[in-house]
Amino acid sequence: MAAANTVLAVLALLLGVSGVIRAKDPYLFFTWNVTYGTISPLGVPQRGILINSQFPVPNINSTTNNNIVINVFNNLNKPLLFTWNGIQHRKNSWFDGVVGTNCPILPGTNFTYHFQVKDQIGGFFYFPSLGMHKAADGFGGLWVNNRLLIPVPLDPPADDYTVLLGDWYTKDHTALEKTVDSGSNIGLPAGVLINDKPGKDRAPMFEIEAGKVYRYWICNVGIKTSLNFRFQGHAMELVEMDGSHTIQNLYDSLDIHVGQCFSVLVTADQNPRGLLHRDLQLVLEAQGADRHYKNIQQY
After folding, report:
1. InterPro entries given for it (predicted)?
2. Are 183 and 124 contained in the same domain?
3. CA gap 26, 147 in Å, rounded
4. Which of 55, 90, 143, 165 is deepest in the core (most CB within 10 A)?
């Protein structure tokens, strides 16, 4: 009898250990109420897509192996889908959020996305994928960080910053959709936005401290325009692109095309003056368009 009890105790211990080892990966839960609202990022009031009444919409900050569960309530007057640009839906493509794998979420209904981010450590973004909804915003960053037990080929930066940049049209997204459906060109954008804000006459976007290294997660969330990106007077060390680590070369500027994401390290090492701040210009140039946009961050 004692031997039997010992066996049962050992089995219980093994089952307990097994339960710890096989514990489910963490879950991130979100509820999104998607509506229209009036926005004016370039000073022109227009209809935009909001999530939980927010503009800009929220970013998703996740870690490898996280399960992401998003319950989307469509309160637009048209069908809606969200796609997760660059995320590999391994062994399950049914939540990719594009026509062909998902039925559109009809107005007044909801749908729950459930997918797992794996070992794609890096920066991505999500956006509404039907029609020209993307021209009405509704896009946000989706970052996949490494778990502590997974080594990455770079030291932790002083801080991480999100840079979502892209061309912007002030026409309503339905008008742009009709233009595209007719076979016509939608023309040049009205401007370029950084984190849904124009570069002209705005407050500093990022606080950085002299001598420290910062990581910038950068995505082109625009419609059609490739952009050239640089920090004036500072080199960028490219460390990741679309979820894969890269050979770490230094660049003065980088082209970033629609849908592309990468992350760079920037050292605030140019003529610091003690604890004083100096202006560090973040410059965006729209290729093929007679526009030059600047944004200032403090250093």
Report:
1. Cu-oxidase-like_N, Cu-oxidase_2nd, Cu-oxidase_fam, Cupredoxin
2. no
3. 12
4. 165
CA distance 280 to 295: 9
Residue type at position 140: G
pLDDT digits (tens, 9 = 90+) for 49-102: 999 999 999 999 999 999 999 999 999 999 999 999 999 998 888 999 999 899
From 125, 134, 226, 138, select the one nearest 176 (Cα to Cα): 134
β-strands 250-251, 236-241: how paired?
Answer: antiparallel
Range of the domain at 217: 159-298
Which residue, chain included where needed, has tokens 């049962």?
Answer: 8
pLDDT tens by residue, 197-214: 886 656 677 888 888 999
CA dist 165 and 247 (Å) reads: 24
The answer to whether residues 163 and 141 belong to one domain is no
pLDDT tens across 111-170, in order? 999 999 999 999 999 999 999 999 999 999 999 999 988 889 999 999 999 999 999 999
Asked if 163 and 217 count as a contact pair (C-beta separation under 8 A), the reply is: yes
